[in-house]
Design a protein that fits this description.
Layout (H helix, E strand, L loop, with lengths): L5 E7 L18 H8 L2 E7 L5 H10 L22 H7 L3 E6 L14 E2 L29 H4 L2 E2 L4 H23 L5 E6 L8 E2 L1 H4 L22 H9 L9 H31 L6 E7 L18 H4 E2 L1 E4 L7 E8 L3 H9 L17 H4 L9 E6 L8 E6 L2 E6 L5 E4 L17 H12 L4 H22 L13 H4 L6 H7 L13
Parallel strand pairs: 1-6, 1-8, 2-11, 3-4, 3-6, 5-7
Antiparallel strand pairs: 2-9, 2-10, 8-10, 12-13, 13-14, 14-15
Helix pairs in contact: 1-8, 5-8
Length: 511
Amino acid sequence: MAKTPNILVIMADQMAPQALPVYGHDLVKAPHISRLADDGVVFDNAYCNFPLCVPSRMSMMAGRLAHNIGSWDNAMEMPAAVPTMAHYLRSVGYSATLAGKMHFIGPDQMHGFGDRVSTDVYPSNFAWTPDWIEGETYRPTGINMRAVVDAGICVRSLQIDYDDEVEHAGLQKIHDLARFSDGQPFFLTVSFTHPHSPFVTTQKYWDLYDHDAVDMPAVPPIPVEELDEFSRWLHYAHAAEKHTVTEEHVRTARHAYYGMCSYIDDKVGRIIDTMTETGLLDDTVVVFTADHGEMLGERGMWFKQAFFEQSTRVPLIVRYPKAFSAGRVDKLVSLVDLIPTFMDVATDGNAPEPVSPLDGHTLAGLMSGGDNGWDNTVISEYTGEGVIAPCRMIRRDDTKYIYTHGHPGMMFNLADDPLELENLVGRPETAELEKQLLADLLDGWDPDSISEQCIQSQKERLFIQAATGGEPNWAYRFRSDDGSRFVRNGSAVGTKIKARYPFVEPTPFER
């Protein structure tokens, strides 16, 4: 009888696949991720289901689209009663350990994991609740253009503190699993916060790149008056009008981001080397992915939150040569497909029925070279900070439709228009396709009802946050001083900047 495989998920934060050599970038240095891909299956069109940290991760963990679990934004808790991939794998005999970021909100800081071996980096309370009634304005959550204009070199940062600890904890856990697991299969997630903004890296990683050779965005900034409504909301939410971003700022931020990608790549290399040294690699399904991408200056936009390709696509590489030959898959897949895939692999194709409906499908058939009538469609949603109405995206085959409630839609043919510049909405020749995609996008998703739910939830959470000052803060603390070392309440900006050395003073509107 074949050994039940272990499952190792290595997760980056805000890593756009377009910035990796395995996805075609010829400047970025990431040899260890490329080595993983050489022996694995690379998904060329993998998407997150919500381009923001918390809802994307909760959707992935639950295998369900965000609206089906009420995960509206970065300050929304997922009920403890929602089964997760950790619960499912434990139900078939696995141990489940989390090292690093998962950004759980609320008192349940495990959500099925039996063990956490490091702290979490961001608040677990309602500090980052959006306010759609207040409207389009900057709120101090740390997502603003200061990260671009202050990009560059640091000696140390909060994120380096964090990810170095996550790596150490993850490597130690691998050694412990090799020595003490007694043959029980394990599910281990090692989740880093790089290359999430701010865009700063150490001299070592900065020096990997020739500054003048750093490529610039393919699409220049679009004037505010020409932006679609969704992008205009994000422009003001990111305080873009309060900063002058020069070409040199853009090049520097991209340079630092590439250094941050190489920093994560080195960590991936050490994890794989440790798996090899301990004899675990051949019996382990290794997955590399991210929670969402990074706009990196395309269209003058930064960070995530948008439905453009840089923001919504994610890297997805699966290595398990015992079952899946190395290759590439061009079908459309998303993070909700991971639970069905893990359960399929864990049970040799005999997975029990899920206890609640899942929105994804197993990728095992695609990785084996077939498609089994694959529904080549992905859905991504957005109700988080920066917008003031529900938004949704559907991609089917080469066509993407973006819906912004109360405003005109956008539709792009990505085969003909990969930079998403030619809006096809309203054209007679694509009218039938537009009608069908819009109908499918709205099927089972009522934007009026969702808007009401979001606003009511925001009212309740903002009231609780104001009444309590954010206490109790449920953040998982592995060490006694983790409450002061990482972001726990209020503005992330001051904490992130203070944790950067040399220190950079925040501007008045950021305090």
